[in-house]
Design a protein that fits this description.
Blueprint lengths: L2 E4 L10 H15 L3 E3 L8 E5 L7 H9 L4 E5 L8 H4 L1 E2 L2 E2 H7 L7 E4 L2 H9 L6 E3 L12 E2 L8 E2 L9 E7 L8 H10 L6 E7 L11 E3 L4 H9 L3 E4 L8 H8 L3 E4 L5 H5 L3 E3 L4 H10 L1 H7 L7 H18 L4
Parallel strand pairs: 1-2, 1-3, 3-4, 4-7, 7-8, 11-12, 11-14, 12-13, 14-15, 15-16
Antiparallel strand pairs: 5-6, 9-10
């Protein structure tokens, strides 16, 4: 049995994308026989450290490595994450990224969540051994099927029929302005010219923000959020400099087509499942709807399922164990 220490704990309550991803990853690893612990003092085969979660520092990586435990570090870009201090740029490097680079002497393998993120870290000085693995999601929750009562067959979601109102979803736990709120204010005005389009936001919003045409609902637990996504047809992805948006992956995996802002890893994840925003919501909606059926016909089912992602993490763990701690 593979024994893995993970520093980041998760909750089943509504929370951010990292929590959603790690919750799905941990479950998938356990289903594959991994014994996962959050006790740093336990004897394990490998350590999975997540970004700078819960005050993590390079000292923990150094201690684990000194104990003979190979360390795998999953990195997050801090340009739009964490406190203003973590987002501050010094000599061209984001402070939160710089603190993660300090782990390098003690880390056997690094996991980047996107090619975009890998390039950001390499331009900031990273030169180590890394693997790019996009995040994933639990398709039993964020997928095409409503799983009803036990012993009853799951019911596949309905797709846009070409005539009904086209329903867009936006989801976000963060209420940071760079999650796309400037664009959403603009879209709230443009929707007056789009009578057959609706937009519903589920999550937290900046204090004092209200919309006239975009419906807003409070954050919901994962299963409720999954059911909501299956009732929608499209997804608006407008986060800036996002390392790998789990909200976006949950939408795509649930069968939604995307209008995305070409920033961060958005295009890397969504270009096969939607259209790039060029400045006009009206034009983007027209492009999305005109190619909807063709795009749906060539899309594979559950492209961001957590299963293959967990397998790739296991492969990285095995390589790290074979190579051993950093000398």
């Amino acid at each position: 049995m593979l024994r893995v220490f993970a520093n980041a704990t998760v909750t089943n309550a509504p929370y951010g994308g990292a929590n959603s991803f790690l919750r799905a990853l941990y479950a998938a690893l356990r289903e594959r026989g991994v014994r996962l612990t959050h006790d740093v003092n336990e004897h394990v085969d490998v350590a999975l450290l997540n970004a700078l979660t819960d005050g993590l520092t390079a000292a923990t990586a150094q201690t684990l490595n000194a104990r003979g435990i190979p360390v795998v570090h999953r990195r997050v870009g801090y340009a739009v994450s964490g406190s203003p201090e973590m987002r501050a740029v010094h000599d061209g490097v984001v402070e939160g990224d710089r603190q993660q680079l300090a782990f390098d002497p003690y880390v056997r393998r690094v996991i980047f969540q996107s090619a975009y993120s890998a390039e950001v870290f390499r331009s900031s000085g990273f030169t180590g051994n890394a693997t790019i693995i996009h995040n994933g999601t639990d398709s039993r929750i964020f997928g095409l099927y409503d799983r009803r009562l036990p012993l009853r067959r799951p019911r596949r979601r309905a797709f846009w029929d070409g005539n009904e109102t086209f329903h867009f979803a936006i989801t976000s736990w963060s209420k940071d302005e760079r999650k796309g709120f400037a664009y959403f204010r603009q879209f709230d005005e443009e929707l007056r010219e789009l009578p057959n389009v609706s937009v519903t936001y589920m999550g937290r919003v900046p204090d004092g923000l209200s919309f006239d045409r975009i419906a807003v609902h409070a954050p919901r637990p994962a299963r409720d959020l999954g059911r909501f996504l299956r009732q929608c047809h499209g997804f608006l992805a407008f986060s800036e400099k996002e390392t790998c948006s789990n909200a976006l992956l949950e939408g795509i995996n649930s069968g939604l087509q995307v209008i995305y802002l070409d920033s961060g890893a958005n295009a890397e994840l969504a270009e096969n499942y939607g259209v790039r925003f060029e400045g006009s919501l009206t034009d983007a909606v027209s492009a999305l709807l005109s190619g909807y059926e063709e795009r749906r016909a060539r899309s594979r089912e559950h492209p961001f399922d957590i299963g293959p992602v967990a397998e790739r993490y296991l492969e990285v763990f095995r390589h790290a164990i074979e190579e051993g701690p950093v000398a």
